[in-house]
What does this fold into?
Amino acid sequence: MEDRRRLFLDLCSELTGFSRFELEGTGLVEAHQKLLEGVLGEPMSERFYALAAAVLSSDAAADREQKIRETLLPPAPFWPVVSSLITLWYLGTWDGHTPSPLAYVEQLSYQAAHAHPPGAKPTGWGSWAKAPVS
Amino acid sequence: MSPESSGRSYDVVIVGGGVSGAVIASELARAKKSVLLLEAGSDAAADPVKYAGLVDTFQGMGALRGLPNGPYPINLAALSPNDAHRDPYFVQLGRKQFQSDYLRMLGGSTLHWQGTTLRMVPNDFRMQSMYGQASDWPISYDDLEPDYTRAEAMLGVSANVEDQANFGIWFESGYVFPMERMPQSFVDQFFDAGLQDATVELHGGRYPLRVISLATARNSRPNAAFDRGKGYVPVGAVGNAEVGMRCQGNSSCSPICPVQAKYNALKTLEQAQRQGDVEVRAQCVASRLRIDSASGRVEGVEYKRYVEPGVQRYVSEFARGTIVILAANAIENAMLMLASDVVDVSGQLGRNLMDHPYISFQGLASKPVYPFRGPDVTSGVETLRDGRFRERHAAFRASIGNWGWVGEPASSVTELVGQARFGASLRNAVRDKFTRMVKLGVFLEQLPESRNRVRIDPRHCDAAGNYLPVIDYDYADYTLDGGVAAISKVWPEITRRVGIVDHTDFSKVSPGFQSVSRNDTTFTVMGPGHIVGTHRMGNDPTLSVVNADQRSWAHPNLYAAGAGSMVTIGTANPTLTLAALSIRTARQLIKELRP
It folds into this structure.
């Protein structure tokens, strides 16, 4: 299980472009992992993590990217699940539904844009008048 | 057998718990008059715990998040127009859809509004005299000016006089707004830097294009000099006064401000109930005015009370008042008067329905401007609100949008992921695009036309026999030509000067928009919720429904208050004007009710 957690986190980092620390900072790693495994079911999860392990076994970033292209992007059979997973991180929705308030609040799209999701994490009085600090 | 009242008779019965009804109730309470206010919808938003629940609903909504009525529960017992609802409330019979919505809940549309509070310009009140278009109001800007001032105090408006004193808009010497203008956004500053000398040529000459801060009913830094040095204390959330005394940048004003730093009518209702004899009854749908045929006096309001929001089980009741005021918005006011067979010599009841067809322009700035922060609108290009071109085509104002493009970030992220972008490439693409998104929203004026109307028809009722609004609506060339001017001249000049690459695609009809054409130009518009005109005021009972105090010509103790009384819409968002008209009416009522 610990191994799966590490594989999930590292693979999500590769897929989203956010570091392990940034993803852990969202507090969503466990929830998103559970959601994914729930959708895949057990034999498929096993296969998914095997692919993840293969991708992550390379030390060079360029090699990992290449393996992702070969085994997880179209026309790979896991692509729909992988694209849903990236969308879950970026938009906080799975199949159009928001699985939890936290998924909405910590969605990465706004973080990538140096902004915040509407109705949550307000940036403070007057903050919109200046460039963001981070 | 007609429903009988609980026995008590009130000085005033008000139908509608939005900003118009709340303002009148508050003024009457101060004058020691007794008020009963009936609201068709629920009062859930007045409860801080339930209000927090609405914020949660909003966060969980996904793609429907942008809809004004999105987080507010659909209430079958008192329907509101709601894009997400399968069965639309409006029955649309015109060539074009009437797309604006409103909210039937205690607090009304001020729960979901953006908060912009602009005064109309003096020429808006005299379009016929100045430009040979539409009709003149029976009152002028000068007549309404003290009421605008009072409305700004009651709603809590943030602005600077030097920004707002344009096109002849004047203020009392020494006047300051309750609060300072909202800080201009980083996006505003980007536009402002590029438009320093910009002009555009329209009929009648060259007109400047300038960025000006908007006056808004949103808590900002209080002005110590307000009210001759008495100062101003911002009003926070209802039931939670310490929260919301300053905007903190939640960026969700429409549809809901999590902290209520944005004004909503519940604040005025809470104040009214503290100040005097004001009884508020929610979940009471007014169905008919009881009118004495001999005297023409309105005896009171027949209404249907329901216990469970969403469940159409009604008990019929009756509320008796010396004076009855309809404050349920332009469409609902007209419908209630039509359902009550209110005498209408002019034939204008329900007619002259107007809105601000809204065009959304979008583009990518030449450098990061960091949108998706702060209120959606803090400034606009406000310099085309008046001018000789109004002889030929509509005036308009243009809000600078701080929240990126419509449907974002979902739309672009979905597209990028669909292209199999991932990792740093995805993150950088998201960052590069979203940090440069700019939007300009153009509000076009419409002129009153009798063909644009709301009416009722027994063939169009809901399951419980409540009338549905039957709407005929279309756009005249006057308005469409204003849109063409915005598209062909104003937006291109702005993008050129400011440094924006245009990404507006009118071939894509976003949800809530519809396609319109004028000569070779096709574009899309939507309705921003500015509903006016259906019981216009005037000096002549053969041409208007109410007089300059919003009193019905036919029924001496009946008033129809709100944006329905407006003769023209101009370019200002109507809320401040309708609040000013409500204050004017309240003053008249207090005189009439003098013992």
In short: DSSP finds eight helices and no strands in chain A.
